User: What shape does this take?
Amino acid sequence: MIIIETKNILINNGTLISPDSDGTIKTIKNTSILIENDRITEISNKISKNSLDKIIDGENKIIMPSIVNTHTHTSMSLFRGLGDDLELDSWLNDYIWPIESKLDSNIVYHGALLSHIEMIKSGTTTFNDMYFFMEDVGDATIDSGIRGCLSYGMIDFEDEEKRKSEIKNSLKLLNYCKGKDRLKGFLGPHSPITASEKLLLESRKIANKYDAKLHIHINETKKEVHDTLNTKNMRSFQYLEDIGFLGDDVIAAHCVWLSDEEIDIIGEYDVKVSYNPSSNMKLSSGIAPIDKLIKKGISVSLGSDGSASNNNLDMFEEIKIGSLLQKVHTSNPKVLNADESFKLITINGAKALGLDNEIGSIEIGKKADIVLIDTLSPNLTPNTNSLISHLIYSGNGSNVNTTICNGEILMENRELKILNERDTIEKANDITQELKSR
Ligand SMILES: [Zn+2]
Assistant: This one.
């Protein structure tokens, strides 16, 4: 458990860039932020406070909300570089699933911790994760000081016994997350192809009962669309609507192959779409019609997917790739502009996870999940031009100077405060080597 040592923190005289309550992106120069315990209590250019525990110099810094990553498999960072340049089917069947069958809780814990360090160092403090041994991902999240929405990835392939055990694992996770400050338990039926109708419906029932969200992969590949058409005689979103699975609490990762009817269904049910451009490009899955979705008023956020198919968790890199991909896809440089892109990685992510009352923007009363960006960097110069443009089109994770989550400083001047970076990396190398020899 983390003991909060610093109670009152003043971030003094920086440039604030954040979505406003009406959704527009505001930039305010020479302003200061007061954090008391875990919350933002004042935003002003003249804060006078006597009993401060810590002052952070905001000069030459952008103060922005911490990034939200809405689709991850954090422990898969241990498989980074394993089986590159393959299609999804062969990548999963020949490389990922064989090694995943040998996982244990200790390996999953250390894989998650490795990802948490990478996220903290690149400005992300909230992630939406689906995997196995999820209580261990939860333990790693508690130890690293960030926020996690956790789902146990349920796959039953129509097997009755498997379905029962998958549901049992999910209920265990929901109970584990109960009452833990920075954790939320979600339901994770893997996809409409790998999860049976019974499993999908049972997940929906439990989600309603526990007020938990549903995290699922939908229409990632053309093959998935064909498989659903062959087995259900419908496309995925039509099938999911038909069985009564959809709702505004569904977070649908990928959504690469969508018919116009499916886009209408997504809009009608207010399904939250997680856009995963790097993974979709690397596995050659396709290009999600994000511009169309946004024009329909559908809530889109950004996910990295696992590091085995990305291959990193740098959300600055991800949003740049995501924005450029939409521009080339539509032959229109105006789509997914810098302001819209900034929303995808902040307030839209928070909305998708049901956390927008707490995080996703820097506003009085919200949790202090804040990142400082060092503008005295060659790739963010000149500072007289648009800083929001710099963040989206020129920035990268290494420009993050300081990361705060829940009022706790997790990294300052690029030095981790809670986790030991060297030990975590060495441990990750050792256990991966051991795993491969099993
Ligand atoms: Zn995924």
